[in-house]
Amino acid sequence: MSDHKRLTTASGRPYTENENSKTAGPRGPILLEDYILHEKMAHFNRERIPERVVHAKGSGAFGTFTVTNDISQYTRAKVFSKVGKKTRVFARFSTVGGERGSADTERDPRGFAVKFYTEDGNWDLVGNNTPVFFVKDPKKFGDFIHTQKRDPFTNMKSPTMMWDFWSLNPESLHQVMILMSDRGTPYGHRHMNGYGSHTFSMLNAKNERVYVKYHFKTAQGIKNFTDEEAAQMKSKDMDFSQRDLIEHIENGDFPKWNLKIQVMSMEQSKKVDFNPFDLTKVWPHGDFPLIDVGVMELNENADNYFQDVEQSAFAPAHVVDGLGYSPDKMLQGRLLSYPDAHRYRLGTNYEQIPVNRCPYAVNNYQRDGSMRIDGNQGRKPNYFPNSFDDMEIDQSYNEPSDELDSNIADWYDRNSKMGGDDHYSQPGKLYREVMDDEAKTNLVNNTVGAMSGVEGPKKEEIINRQLCHWFRADEELGRRIAEGLNVNLDKVMQAMHEHHA
């Protein structure tokens, strides 16, 4: 140990768990006492100013969500209270890794966030255009994003950093496969699906809870650029997605998405042969079919980009009565870090900015802070309880208590057998059962092109390690990528045997 530097907190305390958050049981919620998680995320949120740390380049518009199907058996949320009900929304789409001035057609996941202005408060459904993500524990999030940003030495994007991280984290394979397919370069925002990605929950009028996944299916149809087309558009129009969205709305051609949900009972969540709260996994549609809910239409461009799109702030912590969270570790990490990022970027009163403000009554005892713009509640008392105002707690909004997975709190390895170490079955099925021949070929070519950028003394080690993951997902896929990289297959097989040994 004397030849190495100890991993420590900012205050100098050595610590050992830098990848797994402390939870109540392997599938239970994260404990508030895990200060290392908070330190990592709080520092990460403050690294860049003034643009968003991630999702900096984005487009947005206002619109309407209309309920088309009754799901009251699952939720009492007023936004879904009756067929035909309309709710105003604001949606923002974005690239993840690029800066505000980056190109819209970069190979990157896309953010897909929707703010519902409901009479019970604002509900933010904050996801991506993919149903999974690269990591399953929030302690890894900042490290992952660093690999997608700029090398601290060269200040350039680094394929070596990216593939080094992915090859060391086989849990990333499912999302990497989607990213390397043509879905990694969507044809603007109108032609891509959106997903809540995380597992959330719903409560009905009987206080019965179910777990849910949200899917926004584009009514315009899926349409993607090939890698070559995306590169050409990047040189032709760096703002393609922004231009495409704003022009279609201005011309009255309003894009629409059909909202659907998957539902899993509490009992089913304990019996399925995978962790339903693992963000690197999908729920099979054959077992948990899509249920129609409603339609979102975007029909109004923001009059001022900065005012509404740049200052919009979404947080998965913002749910309303009848909608809730789950033990999804990445979701739990975002509950803290997203509002924290907004307070840093926009100020402690960011929810008073018009695009973020709830249009219905808001009553609390928050006062003061930077940029307070609502009169600061005048002469009203700023403490509770008091003898002077008429504010009351409405007990009808009570929720049932949660049943914890365990009363033993520890740092559980998310990738152990108990935590979910099968990183290859779902990516393999995606390749064999979902992709057609053209999609498979494009995936291989895009991956070969991306991995060809790996360089330096660790090049062979990183490439062989990543090839092991491709082979474990599907042997044909691994062989085609290896051949495209002109890699000695015997060395890859040797690396795989050494890994197993």
Topology:
Elements lengths: L21 E3 L10 H11 L12 E10 L18 E10 L14 E9 L2 E8 L12 H8 L10 H10 L4 H8 L13 E2 L4 E4 L5 E10 L8 H10 L3 H11 L5 E10 H6 L19 E11 L3 H6 L12 E2 L4 H18 L62 E3 L13 H10 L2 H15 L7 H15 L1 H10 L4 H12 L1
Antiparallel strand pairs: 1-12, 2-3, 2-10, 3-4, 4-5, 6-8, 7-8, 7-11, 8-9, 9-10
Please give a quick description of this structure:
The chain is an alpha+beta fold and 501 residues long. The chain is built from 14 helices and twelve strands.
Describe the protein in words.
This protein has 501 residues and is an alpha+beta fold. It has two domains: 285 residues, Catalase HpII,  Chain A, domain 1 (Beta Barrel), CATH 2.40.180.10; 76 residues, no CATH class. The protein is built from 14 helices and twelve strands. The strands form two sheets. Strands 2, 3, 4, 5, 6, 7, 8, 9, 10 and 11 form a ten-stranded antiparallel sheet that branches. A two-stranded antiparallel ribbon has the order 1-12. β4 and β5 form a beta hairpin. The longest helix is centred in the C-terminal third of the chain and has 18 residues.
- Which CATH class of the largest domain? Mainly Beta
Quaternary status: single chain
**What is the CA-CA span between the terminal residues?**
25 Å
- Unreliable segments (pLDDT under 50, ≥5 consecutive)? none
Q: Give the SSE string.
A: EHEEEEHHHEEEHHEHEHEHEHHHHH
| CATH architectural group of the largest domain | Beta Barrel
Please count the beta strands (DSSP E, at least 2 residues each): 12
Taking the sheet with the most strands, its summary is:
10 strands, antiparallel
Strand content: 15-25%
Number of domains: 2
CATH topology of the largest domain: Catalase HpII,  Chain A, domain 1
Name the CATH superfamily classification of the largest domain: Catalase core domain
Helix share, percent: 25-40%
Overall shape: it is globular
Write down the overall mean pLDDT.
94
